[in-house]
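Re: your question from the hallway

Yes, I did run it. Sequences:
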Amino acid sequence: MRLTDDERSMLDGEQGEAVQAAMDLLVRYGEVLGAERLVDTDNVCGANIFGQRQMMLCGASDPDAVFSEFSLDSPRPVEITPMKAQSYQLIGPMDTQHWQVQGLSQEAHDAIEESESYSARHGIHLMNTCTPYQVGNVPVKGEHCAWMESSAVVYVNSVLGARTNVEGRESTAAAMLTGKIPYWGYHLDDNRFGSHLVEVAEPVTSSLDWGLLGYYVGEQVQEGVPVLDGIAEVPNLVKLKHFGAAAASSGGVEMYHIPGTTVEARTVAEAFGPRRPVQTLRYGARERRQTYEQLNHTARDSDVDLVMIGCPHATLSQIRDVCRLVQGRKVHPDSALWVFTPRAIRQVAEQNGYAQILRDAGALLMSDTCPAIGQFLPKGTRVIATDSAKQVHYLPAIMKVQGWFGTTEECVNSALTGTWQGSL
Amino acid sequence: MGEANTVTLRGRGLVGGVVEGEALVTRDSISGWGGIEPTGGRIIESRHELSGQSFKDKILVFPGAKGSSGWSGMFHMSRLAGSAPKAMIFNYMNTKIALGVVVTRVPAVTDLDQNPLDVIETGDWVRVDADTGTVVVTKGGRPGGGVGGPETGAEKAATGRPGKEVGGHDD
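Structure:
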């Protein structure tokens, strides 16, 4: 890989040990990719909040040592210097308000809190959400970014036209320290054109519809760049958030086009540019039903122990929708309703009275984390329900529970009645 | 060259080193975060062909990496837990697998001149030389049969401490 004089000086250690370790990682990574060079970035989203498990595996509690190993792949501990690029913490392991509900011990809480403050001291903005684009980090078209979080990557690439690959913890931490990331993949014009044409023959309107379509498309195109044709109704942020998260879970979709809606293509022809579709897929009633059945394949028992809303983290509009469904009613004593949102949005929800409506109904408004990331559920949970195709893809595998997938209304109703009654 | 029941593949070595071991082969791409449990190196994705099986100490042969951006983080953790595969052989390059093989620090090879998924079967004995990008497959298991056959001197020592209860939190 070709390095500039500045990058060479980083690699040679002239800008400190932490920057050197970061550049070493970027060079090893870039060479495996086959990247020709690095590109400057000043917008990095990563995940560097650690707890007791990482300390144990690392055999050290010193935060520099833990960061060196887990964030920079440097077995030799180095002193971590302030982040050079604008750096943002993604979703993390703990809700700082409801950590006891998560079942965390005081010691586990303290370790995570210490790690958060270590990140803050090093210049990492504590956004603590999988949806930074909801709370102030809205990259512009053409901006070179280095983001983790597959659902956020597909959103900013496709909807906003920013440029990032799905990065990992080590590459984003290295980008934070150096302001560099390999110039590869979706940073290059040629890789951003469509690969598969998806003829959407079924109306796609609700969030559930968009989750189903995303899950189907991801499974079909895997790493491809799908182009959706036949979308009659312009989707909003919530629907695209569900669509991209689902497509990135069942496959590896990092970029898609909805001509006329997403920013890089006004027409199908523009979406494909010089490429020809490698395959044309048709999404009809049969594909929709099969996808619904796949998403519900782990579920058997209709007694629902937990309803999870907010994957990716809920918008204020989703919180309001849940409030309208629960207002004046109570969550069933044998069930629970947890809504997840960015910390900043929880504050607005508090100001608007939504948080109080949820409390009155016996629901919980959580932030900073989610059950899959933090690996927690109410004690004894066997069956969950969620309106997120992504969450129902992951949570049963991670937490060994059954998972129902349905509309937000079906999910919330199952928390109110304790019983799943959803259907397609 | 080589014995009648061996096949040699040539490709691009990514992370250096030489190792040999038993192959574990899947035609399904692998998810890292939410797809594996790093302590035991087990595949946990419910609809995966290898669901429930462990890749610990195996030569993992698979199409590539999919899913969450926590891929590298999970395989990184499997190394620290002593549950990483011995080597990785795969077809499709992306950022998840690239960063994953770098931080797992095991020999890795891609761009092979024959599709490894067609040539290698679970249980075959495989020697991976990632310094030269060469993969030698002995069909049907370890040469000479039985246990206790020769191990290559260049094999990397496990760097982790096995048996710790771990999980991960980054997507």
